[in-house]
Every structure is written in structure tokens, then in C-alpha cells.
Amino acid sequence: MANIKFNATLSSTCSIYIVNKVEDLPVDLLNEKESGFVSSKLKKDFEFASLNRYDSGLVVLKAKDEISYQNKEKVRKLGAKITDLINSTKSRVIEIKDLSKGEIYAISLAEGMALANYQFLKYFKDADKKKNGLSEINIVSKTIETQKVEELIAGVEANAWAKDLVNEPLSFLTATELANQIVEKTTPVGVKVEVLDQMKIETLKMGGLLAVNKGSLDPATFTILEWKPENARNSKPVVLVGKGIVYDTGGLSLKPTGNSMDFMKSDMGGAAAMAGAIYAAAKAKIPVHVIGLIPATDNRPSGNAYAPGDVVKMHNGLNVEVLNTDAEGRMVLADALSYAKKYNPELVIDAATLTGAAVAALGSEASAIMGTASESVMDDLRTAGTNTYERVVEFPFFDEYDEYVKSDIADLKNIGGPKAGTITAGKFLEHFTDFPWVHTDIAPTAWSTASKGYISKGATASGVRLFFDFLINYKA
């Protein structure tokens, strides 16, 4: 990831000008031949022209007057293309000068470039050779608010960290190591972190988390984060809950390897999203009291693993009939949601790579939301989704779906059958809440099999920018 700076005075090897029309460029910037070339290239909005001068590079990007979330997304995607161009020319430092209406696009362009420049090179012997040249992005402006740039910096840094976490294999990122990484990253920015060990989890009788952990040789963890600024807008906290299944084989209900188990290190994408959002909020000093809950373990089929047919007593006392051990995410989330009650929360939001049904319904274009929060909260999440282009779609949550998760021998069963799988997973979780709550299924968006614009192949850090934007604009 490239570092982003503001009002920098460093000499850059490449300058990027954003304009609404070519005539907006400084009169002495281009000679006659260059001006003709740029004009010929920029016939339409959202195109760019590049000039490779002897001692520097120059890029001119033409944007539309009208500011909309769609147009900001077009600029982010152009940022990815420009990043490829800059890395191909080995440029290290660039500066962005936005001469367009309102200077809004400078933020979008820098964001797209920084996100596109992400690499995960830890396990390459020749990582230095593979590393992108672009290392610094300077935004030059007299009118952009400093806070907006600080939020941009916090968001892209949190996004890169979350991607690193999800891209790490289980051989490194056990549940214990996930907790260690969260402590190491978030404590320096003022987040208070407590890690509950296996003995404490047992004392709290978190039956769902303990059941999933039975097949593992490694202990479970339950990590609690808290960002509580003195000027918080909310008197009661917002609680963010993230599924932390660091690897999911499906347990005894074993997954097929091809196109499934081979990327199941990403099953802690919800944990990465929530930890990343809280890190960003603290780094940017967002005045919202936020608590994060991260239940973590791997799900394996050992001789002592929990089995289909088992009945598990959960943290809130409900008994759950297990009919599929691959429906483990809702088991650990349920205990965390139940635990959230102790904070008397104003709102609880969970995020999880929970169901293949969500992928079937939405492809890779959006995440699913549902729950009991007010319509204004749902609207605010949709707005955050359009702002960041991490879009969300609200699924129905009718009472009739409760029938799908009723068990013949216990209070609940952990799967609802072949229909409405995303919704019935949410309905299962609802039984562990008595507060305004939103369930977010990020299974469609947490992992990408190919690079798409500024979205990297592999981990996408889906949810980090979405929930960070929601917190920035949160109204208590």
C-alpha cells in the first residue's frame, strides 16, 4: 500500500491533474503538441491521458461536474488503472491536484490508487523484486478538510491490515495469533483490548464456540475491543461482532476441497472487517463509542469434534440441535451476540462469511443485511454501502421464517433446510439478541478469485470501509 500525505511539498515523479474540462489546466502546463494530444484523448468523461516526460510523468483525468457515488466509484477504478501505469514506469512518488468542481475526486482517486497498490508478499522469497514502485501519494489542496484526508488514510490502512489478516494461512494465523495481531495493531491507536482464553470461555459457558473448537488442537479465543473517546456522540455503545473462524474444513460435515476448502482461511473475514473498522475509527478519532467482539477458532474434523445430532447448550441457555457442523459460524456468533447484552448496546451489527446461499442470491456484487434494527439504521447502512461501493441488500425477515429453525428435540436447530438459507441463518441468530441488531452476510464479497479494478485478488477486506463510513456518519 502507498502512504498518503496531505499538502505535501515533496518533489513528485508524477503529477495527476483532475479536471472537468481540459481548459481548466494551468496555461503553462502543456505545450501545444501536448495540449492537442491530451484533448484528443479526453473526448469523454472519466478518461485519462498520460504524458511521459524526460524527468517526470503527467496524467490528466477528466471527470464529470456532477458528483455522485457512481462517479466517485468511476474515479476509484480509474485510480487502479493509473496505479498500474505508474508502477510500470517505476514512479515512486505522485501528487494529485484536483481542479474539478469541489475537489471531491482527489479523495476517491487517492483511495482507488492506494487500494489497488496493495500486495501480500510475505511468503515470496523475491518479495523485494515483486514490490510495487509506488510508495507515496500526495494530495495537494487548499480546500479539502484535513479530517477527510485523515479518514481516508485510516480507512485504506485498516483495509490493507484486514486483507493481510485474511490472506494469512492457518499455519500462521491461529485463533491465538489473530488475537495477538489485533492487540498489536489496535492498542497503539488507543483501543483497549482484552483477550479471553479457553478457561475464561469455558467459565462463561460459551457452548457454541466451545463446540466448534472441540475438533481443534488449538485453543479458542474471544477478543474484546473498545474505542471510547471522551467526546463520544452515543451514551450507549455500538457493538460490532465479527466471525473469527480462522479456517473452516466444515468439521465432520466436510467441505469439498476444490473451489471451497482451499480458500477457507478467509472464513474470519467478518472478524477482520470489524477489527479493521474499529482500528480506523480510533486512528481517525471518530467520536463514537464502539465495542468489538471477536469469537475465534478453527473448525476441524478430529476424533473429538462435535457431530451432527449433538445438542449444544449455548451461552444464553438455549439448547441447539446440530444438524450440520459446517454451519459453525452461527454457533460462535450466537454466543458473541448473547454476550453483547452485558453492554446494554444502542445497536449491534455482526459480520460473517456465513452462507453460500448469499453468494447464490447476490453473486459477488453486494452483501446481505437483515435484522431488527430501525429502518433508519438500515438506510444509513445502505448509504454507507453506496458511499464506499460496498453495497448491501436488505433481505426479508418475516416471522414465518422462524418455523424453519425449530427443532424436534431442542430449542433450535442450526440449519433451516434447503430454502432461504441466508435468512434462516439470520433467524437462528435473532434468538440470541434482545437489542436493535443487524446481521451482515459478507460471504459474497469477502474473497475475490480475480483482481477487479482496485479490488485485489484474494482477500477484499469487505466491510472495513462500509462499517467505518457508517461510524463516521453515525447518529446516536
Report what the structure shows.
The chain has 476 residues and is α/β, with parallel strands linked by helices. It folds into two domains: 3-143, Leucine Aminopeptidase, subunit E, domain 1; 154-472, Zn peptidases (Aminopeptidase), CATH 3.40.630. It has helices at residues 32-41, 69-88, 105-116, 127-130, 146-167, 175-186, 198-203, 207-213, 269-283, 329-340, 356-362, 375-388, 421-430, 464-472; strands spanning 3-6, 14-19, 47-52, 57-62, 93-98, 136-140, 192-196, 221-227, 238-242, 244-248, 290-299, 311-313, 319-321, 347-352, 367-371, 392-394, 412-413, 437-441, 447-448, 458-459. Strands 7, 8, 9, 10, 11, 14, 15, 16 and 18 form a nine-stranded mixed beta sheet that branches. A six-stranded mixed beta sheet has the order 1-6-5-2-4-3, sandwiched between helices. Helix 3 packs parallel to helix 5, helix 8 runs antiparallel to helix 10 (329-340) and helix 10 packs parallel to helix 13. The two termini are 33 Å apart. The mean pLDDT is 95.
Regarding quaternary structure, how should these chains be classified? single chain
Please give the number of β-strands: 20
CATH architectural designation of the largest domain: 3-Layer(aba) Sandwich
Could you say how many structural domains there are in total?
2
Identify the overall geometry.
elongated
Proportion of helical residues: 25-40%
N→C terminal distance: 33 Å
The CATH superfamily title of the largest domain: Zn peptidases
